[in-house]
TrEMBL record:
Keywords: Aminotransferase, Pyridoxal phosphate, Transferase. Its cofactor is pyridoxal 5'-phosphate. This is Aspartate aminotransferase family protein. One of its GO terms (biological process) is biotin biosynthetic process. GO terms for molecular function: adenosylmethionine-8-amino-7-oxononanoate transaminase activity; pyridoxal phosphate binding. The lineage of its organism: Bacteria, Pseudomonadati, Pseudomonadota, Betaproteobacteria, Burkholderiales. InterPro entries: Aminotrans_3 (IPR005814), Aminotrans_3_PPA_site (IPR049704), PyrdxlP-dep_Trfase (IPR015424), PyrdxlP-dep_Trfase_major (IPR015421), PyrdxlP-dep_Trfase_small (IPR015422). Coiled coil: none annotated. Gene3D superfamilies: Aspartate Aminotransferase, domain 1, Type I PLP-dependent aspartate aminotransferase-like (Major domain). Belongs to the class-III pyridoxal-phosphate-dependent aminotransferase family. It comes from the Bacteria.
Length: 462
């Protein structure tokens, strides 16, 4: 086994490496954790500590770490043709094969793919493509895109604008013009005194209000994550998406499903739209398409949009050097083959998904847990100070105490990666996780909740 000089790496890191979404002064004081190896659902850091990766890297390592067949596919493609562009009447074999494969596994209205290097670039592509669609049809004013507060759609100018993160909008003059937001379908936040089903319809009605306020003839598209990921695994009521779909259809507005997290088996389908009653015109994908082994993103372009752009649109003046990168596409093809071969989607639907959902729900009996819910292979729980008679009557902690971060610290120190979004603790494990590994993970989570409880009590916060 390779040994690492952790302190030296930390020192170099602090001196030269600017990390995404990081307060460097604070990080410099703590020292960064160095990840060095992965195998299956486990990671190892430079101190030799073994960790359960409850977040699949960053929602992406769906088939787990250490897949030599992916590294072999990548190596072979690099040896054969490491790069060529798709700009000037040229193509490459893995990109063609992957486009055809995605057309096969996606909902029936999808037959074309536009490749990018990331999810953010794919959402920038969506903005330009949706507006271009309406331009070609002669509706020059239909440019507004409606999105949601607390959505995450990436970090580029358009991606961060589509997203509804206040902290991101506060830096760099965002959102860009022509993007407006409605509230998220968060039952805990807005659903007091209502059933979940009734709340779903009400949250969808906010879209219709915004369309009417903006002018239906000015709205190009509505974009949403089927289940919000970075916002804290916000699972909408089952009534929400069918009603959103009805409203989009009523006003002829394009529906964009950002499936960067939800796609490629995470909710027990190739694409979550199929599960939640959506019939999108465009689907954003990234992350799970390659299980993160190599960066790749893209847009599945539905027939409604593709037909107009191809038949009437002429040249679409948009593209990236790495659109359809042969190495990334080779990784994706092998990743998809593994998902099919090992029946990971069927397992999440029939076996491990329901098992995780049941075991995770049991955490609600812990004194710190006021609400725990999940869908497929995403789950979240809310840490509360005192439980009330209903979820809306729970007493929450003062947000400035950052109890979620305290809990995340105990998880991290005890070999479990669980992310904190405020006081909501979330997971999105690799799809290969077995029921025995789910038991191992849940035992560890419960142990760390106990440690958090004792810690919070000692600090006098209970
Ligand atoms: C991660 C993410 C993105 C951005 O993808 P990048 O590859 O980081 O640019 C967009 N949308 C959703 C829903 C995501 O989770």
């Amino acid at each position: 086994m390779t040994s690492y000089d952790t302190a030296a790496i930390q020192k170099l890191d602090a001196a030269h490496y600017m990390h995404p979404f990081t307060d460097h002064k604070a990080l410099g004081e703590k020292g960064v954790r160095v990840m060095v190896r992965g195998e299956g659902i486990y990671l190892w850091d430079s101190e030799g500590k073994k960790i359960i990766d409850g977040m699949s890297g960053l929602w992406c390592v769906n088939v787990g770490y250490g897949r030599t067949s992916i590294s072999r596919a990548v190596y072979q493609q690099m040896e054969t043709l490491p790069f060529y562009n798709s700009f000037f009447n040229t193509t490459n074999v893995p990109a063609v094969q992957l486009a055809a494969k995605l057309a096969q596994i996606s909902p029936p209205q999808f037959n074309h793919v536009y490749f990018t290097g990331s999810g953010s670039e794919a959402n920038d592509t969506n903005v330009r493509m949706a507006r271009r669609y309406w331009d070609v049809l002669g509706y020059k004013d239909r440019h507004t895109i409606i999105s949601r507060r607390n959505a995450y759609h990436g970090s580029t100018m358009a991606g961060a604008s589509l997203g509804g993160m206040e902290d991101m909008h506060a830096q760099g003059g965002l959102p860009i013009p022509g993007i407006v937001h409605i509230d998220q379908p968060n039952y805990l936040q807005f659903g007091q005194g209502m059933t979940e089903q009734a709340f779903g319809l009400q949250a969808a009605s906010w879209l219709e209000q915004k369309i009417l306020e903006t002018g239906a003839d000015k709205v190009a598209a509505f974009i949403g994550e089927p289940i919000q990921g970075a916002g804290g695994v916000i699972i909408p009521p089952s009534t929400y998406w069918p009603e959103i779909q009805r409203i989009c259809d009523k006003y002829g507005i394009l529906l964009i499903a950002d499936e960067v997290i939800c796609g490629f088996g995470r909710l027990g389908r190739w694409f979550a739209s199929e599960l939640l009653g959506m019939k999108p015109d465009l689907i954003t994908f990234a992350k799970g398409v390659t299980s993160g082994y190599v960066p790749l993103g893209g847009v599945l372009v539905g027939d409604r949009v593709a037909d107009v752009l191809i038949e009437q649109g002429g040249e679409f003046n948009h593209g990236f050097t790495y659109s359809g990168h042969p190495v990334a596409c080779a990784a994706a093809l092998e990743n998809i083959r593994i998902i099919e071969d090992e029946k990971l989607i069927e397992r999440v639907t029939q076996e491990t998904g329901p098992y995780l959902n049941r075991r995770f729900a049991e955490l609600a009996d812990h004194p710190l847990v006021g609400y725990a819910n999940s869908c497929g292979f995403v789950a979240g729980l809310n840490l509360v100070r005192r439980k009330g008679a209903s979820v809306h009557e729970n007493e929450t902690f003062d947000p400035s105490l950052a109890v979620g971060m305290v809990c995340r610290g105990h998880m991290f120190n005890n070999g479990m990666i669980m992310r904190a979004v405020g006081d909501r603790m979330i997971i999105a494990p690799p799809l290969i996780m077995t029921t025995a590994q789910i038991d191992e993970m849940l035992a560890l989570i419960r142990h760390c909740l106990d440690l958090t409880y004792a810690d919070v009590k000692e600090r006098g916060w209970l």
